[in-house]
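Thread: Modeling a multi-component assembly for a lab meeting

Hi all, long-time lurker, first post. My supervisor asked me to bring a structural picture of a complex we are working on to next week's group meeting, and I have zero experience with this. I have the sequence lines for every component (810 residues in total). Could someone generate the structure of the whole assembly? Inputs are pasted exactly as I received them:
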Amino acid sequence: MSTHFFGLNQRSYQYSHSLGRLEMSGTGFRSPVDFAINPEGVAYVLNRSYEKRPDGVHVTMMTLDEEYITEFSSYGEAEGELVWPTSIALDPQGNVYVADEWLNRITIFDREGELLGSWGTPGSGDGELDRPSGIAISADGALFLTDSRNHRVQVFSLDGQFKGNFGGFGVAPGRLNLPWGIGLDKDGRVFVADWRNDRIQQFTADGEWQASFGQPGSGVGCFNRPNSVCVDDDGDIYVADCFNNRVQVLDPEGRFVTAMLGDHRLSRLGKEKLMANPDMIRQRALAYANNPDYEQRFDHPNAVKIDSRGRVCVLDPVRGRIQVYVKSKDPALA
Amino acid sequence: MNKPATEHDVGLMAHLLRRACFGASRDEIEAKAALGYDETLEELLDPLGQPEIEEDLMFRLHPFWYQSPALPSHEWVHRMINSPRQLQEKMSLFWHMVFCAGYSKIDVGQELGYMVAMFREHGMGNFRDLLHRLCTNPGMLYYLDNNESHKDTLNENFGRELLELFSMGVGMDQDFNYTEDDVKACARAFTGWNIAPAYPPFPHGRSRWEFRFDPADHDDGEKTFLGETGRWNGDDVLDIICKQPATARFIARHLYSFFVADEPPVPAWRLTPPLDPGLLQAMEQAYFDSGYDITAMLRVLFTSESFKSDAARFAKVKSPAEMVVGTLRLVEDHLEIRPGLYEISQKSTYMGMDLMNPPTVEGWHTGREWIDSGTLVERINYASELLGNTDLPGVRSLVHRLKSRGPALSPEAFVDGCLHLIGPMTVDNETRSELVSHARRGGDLRHESKSENAEFARRTGEMFQMIASTPEFQFE
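Re: Modeling a multi-component assembly
Sure thing. I ran the full set together rather than chain by chain. Output:
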């Protein structure tokens, strides 16, 4: 007898826990579209909500241990308000940058949520914006922004001074079609979720194309509207493969490693909500017996981030939660 | 190469696009008129031959459409405005108005969305198949209490409405189509057609409802239904229903009332003859000849002289959904997703048609009953506001077309030009006289200087607003 270890690699991912629940405000999220994590483990979750409930538009601050802190900003067009927020990122000082694709504006808050300012001009010229959709900030303070309907990445200083851009519409290597998420690796390389081309593209910090990963589809290494990408310190690439309802892990060369499909277990806040309504406990028990996958699996995951401890955190927007995974290089029992 | 479209072609095409679609911009009307009636109709009857709406973009801009609590009527309105498969979308509204189920009871927005999506996907196909999907739709089963109908404690509601409102109707040609015993047999056949347990709304959202057949709760005994005896289940009953002449008549009459001319309310159909028995008979024949194919019935309807005749034009009161969406398509607003769509979707509610939430299983009272003093004000205000906005692309285009009629327009030519471009529509002499009288106060219209151009646009927008407030504009 022999044993065959197909697809063996030197890392595995264990589900750790979840945080959040569906709420219009406070201890949960409503149509969250992105999040950022500071070194102390505080998640800033960007809630887009929906038009009928503009009160759901804000940023929720919650620790990855599921301690609710506060929320800030609200729906509107005034300074500090948001209409169609798309992405959120932190600078090295911990200030918070939020992109709004309707206002074509980047709004800046301090780490407590106090308004610091904003910038952004609509248009298609250098430094002008048409539906900004993803933000990534480098250690030296360069802000990379996917300028979605201009099909490009633009680079700014933190106060909005235009530094350069790259990309442009198309399918050729280095060209983009409605790019969404963007991430940087520890060496400053730029990874773009090339949303409508169903691929990830890698550039140098200067915008020189280096590689493209993936193609349309649902097989391994294929994508269906990837909308978020990040890279851990080992160079492994994580992609929120939204319409395939999974997060794919690629190695630094872009080869498929594994996929996460969602493994949710009730969080503390989730349990608290259920405990307040015995009928829902009973209803959930019946439903769980009939279809456990529903509660566990991702539903259109739209953001993936790495925290300061190297954990992989996945925003699961339809369910109003973040699922957290621990990466292990040692053999680990599931 | 297409022949240039005549005035008659344009008028007929505008009529087809108002009825089979949710209206169209003037550019589209003229382009389709140049293409030809038959070619355009075949395009409409073959929705899969047309591009799909960009659903990925819809999700990207409105991720909440995947969430359970939100009633997706605004998503539907976006589709009505923008779907390249216009007749398919119109048919989803048609079936929603026949197979009525509402949010007021179901209380889960996504279930209404799934039901309408089913109408969209299957509403132009085989009626037997559609009826089966309806009878296994969890939202409809819940709406009509079939989850409360058991082998030992029958609830007749689902069985009754299936016959009375969804397939045969109470009667036709003075006779009754079925008996109370048939209702009971029908309800018995559908016992055990139920819904699997679903997740509650908290903490992570409701799961999609799923149909589940429970054989232990099904009455498997012998039943006599419409004269046939056997141990019928729900599917057997659907087979029997679909081969009834009454079913063909019922569907044909609904289609006629929706697309051609307002029939009296359904409860009157047993005693009141159809408006156009000849056309209905041809549609009924198509129903049987095609094996219950809805598209075959639609082809007969849209190629009939009854539909194409001048008498059919502007003879139907626009439903609120048609008023809302048709005006937007004419002025070319909300052609891409932008904030304000929810409020737009509510306009239909203000006019008396709360999409995905009909007042009862009998649906809305249509025709002239759409209009009362309150809804008329809403309709006029809504259309006037949009048609008077000369910044909107569709209105700007109409102004431009009007200017191309010459360097100066007399008040009479101005009024006639506006009526032509907005329809083409005609108004009665008294209405036209009032419009002309108003136009005369400003004299001839010119557009040579910058100030004349601005005044030309202002007066055109104002005239469009006045036309929107005429009785004739309430019709399609």
